[in-house]
Amino acid sequence: MLCILFIIITASSEYETNSANIVVGSLFDLYQNIFSSSQGDVCNFSPSCSRFGRQAVAEHGIVLGTLMATDRLTRCNPWAYLYYGTYYEGIRDGKLYDPIEKRGQAAFSDQQSQPAEISFPQLPAPPDDDSLYQPHNILKFADFLYQRAEYPAALNEYRRYEFLVGSISDTVRQRIITCLIESERYREAMISADGIVDLSQRTFIKGSIMYAAAQYDSSRYYLQQSVSHKQDVQKLTGLGYAREFNFRDAGKYITLPPGMPRKKKAALGAVCALFPGGGHVYGGRAGDGIFSFLMIGTGAMLSYYYYNQDEDLKFSLAFATTAVFYAANIYGGINAVRDYNHHQNKRYLERIIEAN
Q: Of 29, 72, 120, 260, most Cβ neighbours within 10 A?
């Protein structure tokens, strides 16, 4: 509660400068060093709520940072661990991992790049009778490293081979591209793909590179120009749509498992949140909803009590705190719905990948 009071005090400033951030940081340092240390390690999250609040205000400004920090306080309740594996998917320092980067976005992106696989025949180990400095043995050694999935080392050997012979086959170039994809050096992979002679193969490889880079619009642009690898083109196109959570278009290219998730409306989450905790409940986090209701209800009762007692200062503080928690309840309700949609889409995407 003291932490949120610090945020409210700093929110009264109408300018955002480095000086304001220094003041906010100092207040959070004061809370951490004096009040938080005396309470012990009671926070459910990593980073702690006070660190989260300080970073939120510093990175997102007073208004949004205050809402994010207050929403975090609301979520730091006895039911938080019930949502591990759904809304919180990591553990750090024995706590639920909830970084500022995830909460600072309106919707979460979980598009994991997955390099398109290019199959090659099993290659033998390099011989030990000739000089390894001969180009053909350098190539064999590069292929050996490639088969062992030692892509950075294989790339170096392929580059050395290319330097010595000057001209390389499309097969070697494709292996170089695969090494670059596995190293997430997508721009270099696209440049290397320009050297592939066959136009249809070149566009397919470029589409595969863009798919691995999670640039699915660009991937589809190149894949549609390829007249070869029709089955692979169809699969990558469908998986690209699926990774964008566009399951309806994905179903035009690949087979989808039953049980496509239904998207809940974020706007309806905001409407439900007009009743304290309602947005969280609609988003599948009843524990957070109950705690939000208790916090706002307690603040409202304190405000009413101090108002009747004509204690203006206490009434102002209680009312301001309750108002901030109520606004954060609406913000948190919207995020709860988006978290729910993201989790359901992610689970369905995993089923799609398994089926294809």
A: 72
